[in-house]
Write the structure tokens for this entry.
Amino acid sequence: MVEVHDMIIDELRRRLKGGLLNWDVNVKSMCLTIRVDRSSTLEAIRSLAEISEGRLHLTTISGADLGGDSIELTYFLWLHDQEERILLKVNLPKDALRAQSVTTVLPAAILYEREVYEMLGVVFEGHPKLERLFLPENWPEGVYPLRRS
Amino acid sequence: MPSVDINIGPVHPALHEPEKFVFKVDGEVVVDVEPRLGYVHRGIEKAAGEKTFTQAVYLVERVCGICNVAHTLASVQAIERAFEVDVPARAKYLRTIIHELNRLHSHLLLLGVACELMGFDTLFMMLWRDREVVMDLMELATGNRVMSAYNVIGGVRRNISDHEVSTIRKALTSLSEGVKRYRKAFAEDPTIRARCVNVGRLSPFKGISLGAVGPTARGSGINVDVRVKEPYAAFDEIQCTPITYNEGDSWARFMVRIDELHESIRIIDEALNKMPRGPIRVPVAEVAPQTAESFSIVEAPRGELLHHIYVKKGEDRPLRYRIRTPTYANMPALCEMLKGGYIADIPVTLVSIDPCFSCTDRLTLIDIRSHKRKVVRLKSSI
């Protein structure tokens, strides 16, 4: 378990350099949590996809406004080959809610990014069709139901 | 050749849930699919943030009536992990048993729906007759047929007596005989094979990149099963084998579920044998003892289900409650399966991911050159 974590962190450190902010292993779940800079999101996902030889499963992207001045995105990933669960975290300041779309590497993100966009107002740059997903067509512009402000 | 858009839904007498798909077709072949989701978006994530932890479990149970046990299980496990609560061993086994009973009823329901859709009404009735056996066991063990409210934070709500254990064993032995017959029918019946084999194909590569989960992924040979890969409840002590088929078509996805019926019956039997005696519930604080983030992933009948929560010290409500259901994850893979298939195969492919969809009876034809629309009944157009 530990060697796999070391290998992943070494690879991410080499590829992302300063973009890799910190990491941590949850003692109970033995699950690796990695925090990266928002400009390194796509590169981090690409690196993990290469580590698992393209067999990278995106469970979901979970966005949370916890009341501070930033919004936290959590990418729940499963590496099929290594059988490892990884949580990739990115913080976005509320005054510039722009994130890199990962749909080019993981097409599974298409719907999840649309959901985070409509619920929290995060704009994913590079998304092929960033439109509303669940909310009705007459929902007012600029109102994001899961925002705290 | 004019491009034709077929609208299915959102409200349709044969659909069990409102959802809309617009199919772009060229002759009889589906070229593209555009799903329109959200007709039953009820804002449960937002509402869960305004309920106490105890109330939130009952609320999230209502995300899905069919797999309610999977939702309460994921919910209580996420809260227990945030609160650092250890659940008694017997409660973990009881949770596993009810979770698998829930899977049995859900798979039997889906297989019945699939048979009805293929015009095989006899098998549909037989499957649903046997599903009643499982519903009776659910009522015996939890007190209710559908919404069981069985899992609570810190354990489970009811114990199972020795007498009830023998009733469950007896009922499952007879169910097992029935499942053998259904397996033979699905594996060999020419009508079922003609409707399902090579219909709605999904390659393993596409399955992974589009994020397919559960029986949908396993039908394409992807070896995933949360019960095995990330064991929860009593699955770290119970043997469980992921069922995979390499064909990647609708037939494979149905066969995965049939074999999982046998596997679930075996898991319940093993859990009943190994279940230790002791308490079934521990008291848990009403407010969060620390600020934490936690998640729980379980294998719901339709696949990987995630509950993700943030809690704040001293608060009795979650800061953020996030749920990702399996059918939502399977949506991009479903669109991929439908592309290149025939219009007549849409219902079988839809039902093969278990989203509770069925046939179409209304078409909107759009002539690209004249932009004229006309609505016709599907039957009169074939």
User: Anything to note?
Assistant: The CA atoms of residues 165 and 273 of chain B lie 9 Å apart. The domain at 44-199+251-328 of chain B is CATH 1.10.645.10 (Cytochrome-c3 Hydrogenase; chain B). Residues 89-117 of chain B form the longest helix (29 residues). Chain B is about 45% helix and 15% strand.
